[in-house]
Structure formats: structure tokens, C-alpha cells
Specification:
Elements (H helix, E strand, L loop, with lengths): L2 E10 L5 E9 L4 E5 L6 H15 L7 H10 L7 H21 L4 H4 L8 E4 L7 H13 L4 E5 L4 E2 L7 E3 L2 H19 L4 E5 L6 H10 L7 E3 L9 H8 L4 E3 L10 H5 L5 E2 L8 H13 L4 E2 L7 H12 L7 E2 L17 E3 L2 E3 L12 H5 L11 E3 L5 E2 L2
Parallel strand pairs: 4-13, 5-8, 7-16, 8-9, 9-10, 10-11, 11-12
Antiparallel strand pairs: 1-2, 2-3, 4-15, 6-7, 14-15, 16-17
Helix pairs in contact: 1-3, 2-3, 5-6, 6-7, 7-8
């Protein structure tokens, strides 16, 4: 069996959500699906996929390790984050092909299930305290065992600034503490809270917030610092006693090195669609296991990413919880008529060949969009730019 073609599908679900799907085809008629982790970088990533196709087409799809090495360092210079996203999508698709060719679910190919289902957390954002509380309660009523939202903005920007909101750190820390306290009181002790700091604070304000919310026992505080310098987690770990989750912006295993080996985080936020696919995520997962660090795969994307993440979690011992923004099967079902299963806050991959997800290529061709653009921007009261 040989790889014959790689197709790109940056597609919209018609409601403002873009998914960048990659399809790898073979001469045996078996194909696999992957997903790109940063869709709005899609213009550059699409070119990277075309470039990588030059060394992937004609190769054996079972040679995932060899192909990963060729794609990552075959051009002499190691791959950057753009190329890692491209590698991730291709690699996930190759694992999907292998599982289909062997007529087994992907999680069995990854070592077999160590659990029947994977606990998940949804996105329960709200623009006001009332909205947030209502959203959390509705998800709990639907069966979710977790709630999650992120570091709050503190006001709109001046009218002459387009697409800008305000996030003043001191005000945001105070508001976040109020939110966490209110939600904990409303939902009781048995529902878990995941709070995403979204790299929006500097170290001093991150420490202040973590200390302030200790009484409310969040499951973890996510991405308290920006990701460029993993060593900064040394400083944070000296002052914070709450569980810390980090890693969603890191591509490849190397940025995880310090925080795993020095045990500076408690949960590894591996993004399979950025970090280098399943091949690389497996290595980081097993590495984290030796330091008793659980994985919490980052999954803000679509059904293909969700399926890959859940397959990894089903076959891995060290799993904390799986990010699942929306219930599988409740969205984009025209584009993705087959999705993984979900019930009562848990997801699992079906017992069938591959990842358990498929998409409508004909409809996808009519849903192609320009995979570029910028997310909303944030600034402080003094007009300076701050992290989104």
C-alpha cells in the first residue's frame, strides 16, 4: 500500500466555525483523516502540506515514525510550528489508515483500551456572571461532570478601536476570583472546575489569582503563563500549590522537556494537531507517565481532533480529563455524519476500524473557505497590547 494523494479541506460549518481537515489517500482505496491545529494559519500550513507531500506521496503509510522524522528534519532545519501543524494532520491521517487497514479501532492499535470511556469537560463560557452560571448549570443538567471557562475580559475598548476588548490584569484577577467562588457555591463540591487563564496574565498576577482561589479547589488552572519560555514555570511552581495544566501551544516534545523532567506542571495539555500528531503525542504521554503527570489533550477543534484525542486517552494510563467543547454528534453532522460517541460526560471511540469519524467530501468541497484571519485582540487600559 502506498500513499497517492493528500487533500486539504479548510471548511466552514456555516456558523462561523472553521475546520481544517486533511485527507490522505492510498492506492488500496483506504484513506485517513487528520486536522490542523491552527486553522487561521491555514494559508501557510497549506503550503507546508504541499511541500511535505513531496516526500510523503509514494511512501508506505505504515512507516509513521520514518515519515515523521523525514517531515520534521528532512529539510535540515527542524520544523517550526507551521510545519508541525502540517505534520500533525498528515500523521493523524496515517494512523487512521493503519487502523483501517488492520480492521481495528485506532485505540487498539495504540496499545488497547485501559478504560471504556473518557471523562470530558465542555466549554461553559458566559459574557456575564448570570450567563456563565446559567451555562454551567445547563451543562451539568445535560450530564457533564466538569465546567470550564477562561480568564475574563474587563470591558469593551473605545469605539474607535475595531475588534478590541479590554483586559486589565488586576481587575480581571478580581473578577475571576468572584466567578470561581460564585460557581463553586452554586454547583457544589462534586462538579469539577477547570479555569483557563489563557496565557493572559504575567507571573505576579497569575500567582495572585491562584492563591486567591485555593479555597474553591479547581481541578486545574490552565495556561497561567505565556508559552515561549517553559522555564518560567519554575518560578510559578515555587509560589502556587494548585494543579497546573500547560502545553497546548507547544509543538513537538522538546518544549515539554523541562516541565516534565522537573515536574513543574501536573497536567500536560498536548495538542495532537499541533504537537506532531499521534506519533509525537504518544512519546510525550509515556514520558509524562514516568513523572506521574496526567495528560489533558487540548481539543478546541472539530470531530477529527476529538476522535484522535479520545483514542489516545482510551489507550493511555495517565489521563486527567479530555477537553470536549461540545458534545460529539451535536454539531456539524452534515459535514461529519460519523462522529465518536458521548453520554453522561464521557466520550469513547466506537469499536470499528479507524478513529470512528468520517466526513462528507462532496459537501466539504462546497464549504471551502479562506483559512486565514486574526482572532479578537485585547489591550490594557493604557492602550498597550496584551495576550489574547
Amino acid at each position: 500500500m502506498k500513499i497517492t494523494q493528500i487533500k486539504n479541506f479548510p471548511i466552514s460549518d456555516g456558523y462561523g466555525k472553521v475546520y481544517y481537515i486533511v485527507k490522505v489517500e492510498t492506492d488500496a482505496g483506504i484513506y485517513g483523516l487528520g486536522e490542523v491545529g491552527i486553522p487561521n494559519w491555514g494559508g501557510a500550513i497549506g503550503k507546508a502540506i504541499e511541500h511535505l507531500s513531496e516526500i510523503v506521496i509514494g511512501e508506505d503509510p505504515f512507516s509513521t515514525e520514518k515519515l515523521w522524522q523525514y517531515m520534521f528534519r528532512g529539510g535540515f532545519f527542524p520544523a517550526d510550528k507551521v510545519y508541525s501543524c502540517a505534520i500533525s494532520a498528515i500523521d493523524i491521517a496515517l494512523w487512521d489508515i493503519k487502523a483501517k487497514a488492520l480492521e481495528m479501532p485506532l485505540y487498539k492499535l495504540l496499545g488497547g483500551p485501559v478504560r471504556d470511556k473518557v471523562i470530558c469537560y465542555p466549554h461553559t463560557q458566559g459574557e456575564t456572571m448570570a450567563n456563565l452560571l446559567d451555562n454551567c448549570k445547563r451543562h451539568i443538567e445535560d450530564g457533564w461532570k466538569f465546567v470550564r471557562w477562561h480568564q475574563p475580559e474587563t470591558g469593551p475598548s473605545s469605539v474607535y478601536v475595531d475588534n478590541m476588548n479590554i483586559l486589565e490584569p488586576i481587575d480581571s484577577v478580581r473578577l475571576a476570583e468572584e466567578q470561581i467562588a460564585t460557581i463553586r457555591e452554586a454547583i457544589g463540591p462534586d462538579i469539577q472546575i477547570c479555569f483557563d487563564m489563557h496565557t493572559r496574565l504575567d507571573t505576579a498576577h497569575a500567582v495572585a489569582l491562584c492563591k486567591a482561589v485555593e479555597p474553591y479547589r479547581p481541578f486545574f488552572m490552565e495556561d497561567p503563563l505565556r508559552s515561549e519560555n517553559p522555564a518560567s514555570y519554575r518560578t510559578l511552581s515555587k509560589h502556587v500549590s494548585l494543579p497546573i495544566a500547560a502545553g497546548e501551544q507547544w509543538s513537538t516534545k522538546w518544549p515539554f522537556r523541562e516541565v516534565i523532567e522537573e515536574e513543574l506542571i501536573n497536567y500536560a495539555r498536548i495538542d495532537l494537531c499541533i504537537v506532531g500528531g499521534i506519533t509525537e503525542a504518544l512519546k510525550i504521554t509515556h514520558w509524562a507517565e514516568t513523572h506521574y503527570i496526567d495528560i489533558v489533550p487540548h481539543n478546541p477543534l472539530g470531530p477529527v481532533s476529538a476522535a484522535a484525542c479520545v483514542a489516545l486517552c482510551m489507550a493511555s494510563t495517565n489521563v486527567g480529563v479530555q477537553e470536549m467543547p461540545r458534545r460529539p454528534g451535536s454539531y456539524a453532522t452534515d459535514l461529519f455524519p460519523k462522529q465518536i460517541e458521548w453520554e453522561g460526560g464521557y466520550a469513547w471511540c466506537p469499536d470499528e476500524p479507524g478513529m470512528g469519524v468520517d466526513f462528507n467530501e462532496e459537501l466539504a468541497l462546497s464549504s471551502i473557505v479562506d483559512p486565514t484571519g486574526w482572532p479578537p485582540q485585547l489591550r490594557r487600559n493604557d492602550g498597550s497590547f496584551t495576550n489574547w
